[in-house]
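Narrative of accomplishments. A recurring question from our advisory board has been how the design workflow behaves on a single, concrete structure rather than in aggregate. To address it, we present the structure tokens for one chain from the evaluation set, followed by the sequence designed for it. No filtering or post-editing was applied between the two.
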């Protein structure tokens, strides 16, 4: 997410961002879901499930390689979007391109490609030199590319010069890549953003025939956090969805799990519509970690309640929220998103007050 207002920051080394990325990769993958019929043209059900697990394992290796070797490919730069790394953007697009447009050979041990992303209008910003750089990095992660010489500065891919893509360590990974690429291209409702890394999150729930349970998704997002933190988050989720709040979950530079009240309407609200009406949300980002964000608008009605809160929470609430530059003459820290409370061990000592605060805000 951009720091906003044209302000620029220097990026962290990509190794640090890769460690954050790794925490978003699902460790426990549900194997009991029913898939959309669309995916059975890729392979049989068991092969798809196994392929997705293999792709998940590839992503773990991918992140480890970014930690160990990413500095050779990415130098931190000053930018208005410190979490947008061009290498990751290109790798995401190239892998989706290979998965979506590539065709399997007879044994499904390799994908065959007759054109490169740079020849398509949607990926025209990826230069030949950037493609070669990406393929070199993917070789470090176990890919093998036959039909192209990566020591040269040009590529010649066509019906006469086919690119053969394989992953010898586990060929089923390519089935997972194809299924997830189709899911991203055809079934993702929140589309790509400037630092898109959708494929790197192994969002296998896009294959589900039915919408996934939002509580299950939240549980997965918080997989790397202590049990006490995760349990309290799930407690809040169940409490407020039980009160009739609608929960929407999406990624946009960071993970958003937002809660809104949606009035009965014949018009079906989009994820973005519901998010715009949010009262509070969980937000997990590279910059801030896991936070509770509350767009408190009724504090004057329960000021006496707030006065009984611990000083830390009371001061946060009374400071309010809004543009950091206008309120405090500070650099943009995303203050317009809501009152930001780090969701850590400190918040566990204020569980009752947090619940009382949210209860008063939604009345």
């Amino acid at each position: 997410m951009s720091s906003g207002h044209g302000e620029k920051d220097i990026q962290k080394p990509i190794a640090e961002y890769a460690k954050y990325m790794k925490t978003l990769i699902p460790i426990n993958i549900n194997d009991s879901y029913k898939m959309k019929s669309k995916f059975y043209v890729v392979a049989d059900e068991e092969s798809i499930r196994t392929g997705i697990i293999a792709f998940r394992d590839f992503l773990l290796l991918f992140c480890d390689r970014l930690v160990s070797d990413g500095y050779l490919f990415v130098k931190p730069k000053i930018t208005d979007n410190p979490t947008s790394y061009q290498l990751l953007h290109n790798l995401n697009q190239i892998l989706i391109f290979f998965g979506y447009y590539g065709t399997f050979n007879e044994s499904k041990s390799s994908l065959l490609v007759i054109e490169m992303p740079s020849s398509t209008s949607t990926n025209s910003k990826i230069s030949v030199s950037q493609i070669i750089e990406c393929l070199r990095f993917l070789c470090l992660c176990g890919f093998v590319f036959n039909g192209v010489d990566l020591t040269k500065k040009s590529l010649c891919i066509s019906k006469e010069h086919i690119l053969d893509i394989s992953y010898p360590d586990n060929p089923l990974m390519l089935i997972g890549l194809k299924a997830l690429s189709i899911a991203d291209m055809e079934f993702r409702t929140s589309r790509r953003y400037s630092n898109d890394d959708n494929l790197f999150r192994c969002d296998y729930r896009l294959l589900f025939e039915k919408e996934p349970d939002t509580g299950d998704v939240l549980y997965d997002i918080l997989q790397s956090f202590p049990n006490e933190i995760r349990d309290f988050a799930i407690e809040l989720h169940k409490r407020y969805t039980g009160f009739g709040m609608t929960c929407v979950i999406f990624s946009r530079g960071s993970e958003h799990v937002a809660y809104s009240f949606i009035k009965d309407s014949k018009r079906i609200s989009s994820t973005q519509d519901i998010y715009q009406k949010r009262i509070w949300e969980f937000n997990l980002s590279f910059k801030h970690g896991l936070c509770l964000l509350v767009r408190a608008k009724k504090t004057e009605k329960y000021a006496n309640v707030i006065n009984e809160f611990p000083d830390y929470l009371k001061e946060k609430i009374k400071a309010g929220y809004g543009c950091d530059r206008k309120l405090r003459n500070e650099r943009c820290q995303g203050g317009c998103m809501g009152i930001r409370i780090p969701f850590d061990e400190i918040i566990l000592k204020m569980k009752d007050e947090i619940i009382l605060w949210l209860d008063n805000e939604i009345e």
